[in-house]
Amino acid sequence: MDTCTLGNLLDALGGSTLRLLSAPHGRTVPVTEVLLHDPHTPLPERAPGALLLAVGVRAGEAGPLVRDAGRAGMAGVVVRGDGSDAVPDAEAAGAALLGTDRDAAWHQVFQLLSSVVGAHGTRTAPLGEDALPGDLFALANAVAAAVGGAIAVEDLGRQILAYSTVPGQPVDETRRQGILGRQVPGSPENDEDYRRLYAAEGPLKIPGVTADELPRLATTVRAGGELLGSIWAVDTGSLAADAGDALRQGASAAAMLLLRARAADELARHLSSDLLRRLLDGSIEPAAAAHRLGLAPDAPVRVAAFALAGAATAQDGGQAALRLLDLVRLQCQTRYGQHACVLLDGVVYALLPVVGAADHAAERHLRIAEDIVRRAEEALRISVRAGLGHAVPGVAGVRDSRDDADLVLRVLGAGQVADAGQVRAQTSLLVLGEFLADRRDQAAGPWRDVLAHDAEHGTEYARTLICWLDAGCDAGRAAEKLVVHPNTCRYRLRKVQRQLGIDLDDPDQRLVLWVQLRTLAGLRG
């Protein structure tokens, strides 16, 4: 595959995601890898072709880093915000300077750049990955040895991602329970501790809540200004003199690992979404897509479609659709693991595996869809409808299942959920009506005369006819729907026959009239 260039990156991500500020050697400079800058780790002496993300460096102060990158032979540096002050340094160093939006999250920028560079067959890696421990558990042990106390690394949800296992370091019951459940126990006291920690500029000493709980020394894990989590050391009173510095350095290393993990996860989601998009539009061979999605080509699947209900501005609708995509992906991953979901033209599609008996799988899929619609209403305050296509015997039939799901959506209202079998009559009439509307000869007929007569004379012949036809030609039942006397209904029917020349005694003409009134006029009894 061709090596990625600066031009490829700008073509793919140009705009607020990536802006070219300076390119001393032009847009054809090759980019062979993407690196995350660690303020506590020196740059490699040589890294030709590397694109460095200036994590932890203000755009206005990026000049020295840009010069160092140029000396290392790097392709360029990406700064967050206005990097115009560093343009002279970039031109002098011979390194490209690029900017991204000041509110952009570094892990998202890394993921997007990685996806483009990866598509050209080169690699991406966080800076210093060879020097960092292989995973968070190894890092926790290394920091625990340096700090002199047991370590735990947490994400923003207070889930314990890793913990140290250095022999002889005391722990308390709170730590034991947290490790067992991989989650910090919740309490108002804990909430206050985290509030103080997230507001602190450096390591913070936190006293124990109870007499049996040991104090902690904690600091945040950040990438630039983005908060990723926290790292905690159990303080038995014998921490190292430089425990704060060691903990801060450990947090910096943890940020690199967390960014790498998040970027890898987002890249995987991006790739699976792209595969599903290509499956749905028929631009990829189904067997190849199935293999890359981890599915057997003949594994039965079903497409579920989720759409916003109700009017919204383009901006509000777009944001709501993205929130809906996140919700659908989360609910599907909770039940099926890593999962393919994609947002296309305002509709979120999910590929659901058919596991076990077909009828049981269908019931489960309906429950999942109903749960997502309910959660969207309660948590996101958006109204959603959900349609499920027929189960197909393999990924080769995914487009058919998607067509089913799209058709179901069109006959549903806000908050409604159904599969293709449940609304077959409604969708069949919808398709039939579109067929008739496209055929001039089929769209003509006495139904137009009925509507024209009602519009001109204020009669209710069309409504009377559809109620009567829906009632199986029973004037008594039709009169109940019309809230009139049965004789009034019969009178109107006679007038239709005499004034408009419609033969209501002919069953074929009754059938055609009913289809036209239902599908073309959109009337219901």
- Number of E-state strands: 15
How does the helix and strand content classify structurally?
alpha/beta
Outline the biggest β-sheet.
5 strands, mixed
| Mean pLDDT score | 85
Q: Identify low-pLDDT runs.
A: 122-134
Shape: elongated
- Helix proportion: 40-55%
Q: Whole-number radius of gyration?
A: 32 Å
Number of helices: 19
Spatial strand order of the main sheet: 1-5-4-3-2
- Give the N-to-C terminal Cα separation: 63 Å
DSSP strand content: 5-15%
Could you characterize what this model shows?
The protein is of the alpha/beta class. It has helices at 6-13, 63-71, 87-93, 106-119, 136-147, 173-181, 188-199, 243-281, 286-293, 314-336, 358-380, 398-410, 424-438, 440-443, 446-457, 461-470, 475-482, 486-500, 507-519; strands spanning 19-22, 33-36, 50-53, 76-80, 96-100, 151-155, 160-163, 204-206, 216-223, 226-234, 301-308, 341-344, 347-353, 384-388, 417-419. It has a five-stranded mixed beta sheet with strand order 1-5-4-3-2, with helices on both faces. It has a five-stranded antiparallel beta sheet with strand order 7-6-10-9-8, sandwiched between helices. It has a five-stranded mixed beta sheet with strand order 12-13-11-14-15, sandwiched between helices. It has 19 helices and 15 strands. The two termini are 63 Å apart.
